[in-house]
Specification:
About 40% of the residues lie in helices and about 10% in strands. It contains 10 helices and 10 strands. It has a 6-stranded antiparallel β-sheet with strand order 1-2-3-4-6-5, with helices on both faces.
Length: about 350
């Protein structure tokens, strides 16, 4: 992370510097001002700031100001999972403190260490030496397998989400959201997926900690080595099925870069990047799980979930409550995304 990743604090997101400094002096070991505040760029739903002092830099994550949906933007959950995983040496930033007193800066927030390293925004790892790219993919795969090896109860996260039935609950949730948003219209592929997905849920259930958004650009790598030193953005983390979490990560092989950080259309041999099949084999060896039988189903499920999210954005654009360039781009790619989802379903046996 570098100076190029931050900008001046945007209008409406200012922090009370004096109150924050007093809180940090009381709750963050070793803190010593004066304090300067910048805001990280990007579209994080939870505003994120860089806090700099003469001796150290920190990261602050907060709930957005204003009225929010119940349960949304739960930064206290992020702080909890980061603290639990850090206690077992999983690569996450150290949490210095959580503040649930909204009187300090206007909303709940937590402060964590600033991890210095590299973020790769492009799934081809174009900024990495060609001969080292396989090791970066191995590092991502190994990190996710490590997460899925943890038993929630053994890291004080037994109640971090509901146990079992992850696919059923997620399909029901996103199907309901899609069907209720009449403004956004209907999509033939999504209608087919809603009818087919519940009939093909994999047998055998398993519950582990899932990240929910495990992508290359949500990781910080060592400044010079192909090694993950911190996994970021735990906002969607919960207890869920590890197959769904791995397939979401491996979905990069099925998606083009203009939809998400993807590899579809890339010349993988020329780039010296493992094939999708090789990547699945690696996860199976590292995790001890056989995921091939239901892999295409899990890919279809994840593409359906992503398409349902984009469909919701389409509804908000139509209603005038989402007017950003990013929102418009997601609306434009929605038909392509739903076609990719149905293609994955057909690979899994849908007709």
């Amino acid at each position: 992370m570098s100076a190029a990743d931050v900008t001046s604090v945007r209008p409406g997101f200012a922090l009370d510097q004096e109150r924050l400094s007093r809180w940090m002096a009381q709750h963050v070991e070793g803190f010593s001002g004066p304090l300067s505040i910048e805001q990280f760029k990007g579209g994080q739903s939870n505003p994120t700031y860089r806090l700099t002092t003469p001796g150290r830099a920190y990261v602050l994550r907060r709930r957005p100001p204003g009225r929010l949906l119940k349960g949304a933007h739960a930064v206290e959950r992020e702080a909890r999972v980061l603290s639990a995983l850090g206690a077992v040496d999983f690569p996450v930033a150290k949490v210095h403190g959580l503040c649930e007193d909204e009187g300090v800066i206007g909303s709940v927030f937590y402060v964590m260490e600033l991890v210095e390293g590299r973020i790769f925004w492009d799934a081809t790892f174009s900024d990495a030496p060609r001969n080292e790219r396989p090791r970066y993919f191995e590092a991502m795969n190994e990190t996710l397998a490590r997460l899925h090896a943890l038993v929630p109860a053994e890291v004080d996260l037994a109640d971090y989400g509901r146990v079992g039935g992850y696919f059923e609950r997620q399909i029901a949730r996103w199907s309901r959201q899609y069907l209720e948003d009449e403004d956004a219209g209907r999509d033939e592929h999504l209608d087919r997926l809603i009818a087919w997905l519940p009939s093909r849920i994999p047998e055998g259930d398993e519950t582990r900690i899932v990240h929910g958004d495990f992508r290359c650009d949500n990781m910080i790598f060592h400044p010079t080595e192909p090694r993950v030193i911190a996994v970021l953005d735990w906002e969607l983390s919960t207890l869920g099925h590890p197959l769904a979490d791995f397939a979401y990560h491996a979905m990069m092989y099925r998606t083009p870069p203009h939809i998400v950080a993807g590899l579809k259309g890339a010349d993988l041999p020329a780039l010296n990047i493992p094939s999708e099949s090789e990547y699945i084999d690696l996860y199976q060896r590292l995790s001890g799980r056989d995921v091939r039988a239901d892999y295409d189903y899990a890919i279809a499920f994840n593409l359906f979930r992503l398409a349902a999210i984009f469909h919701g954005i389409k509804g908000r654009v139509i209603r005038g409550s989402a007017a950003s360039a990013e929102a418009s781009q997601r609306v434009r790619v929605l038909p392509e995304l739903t076609a990719l989802a149905w293609d994955a379903a057909r690979r899994a046996g849908a007709r």
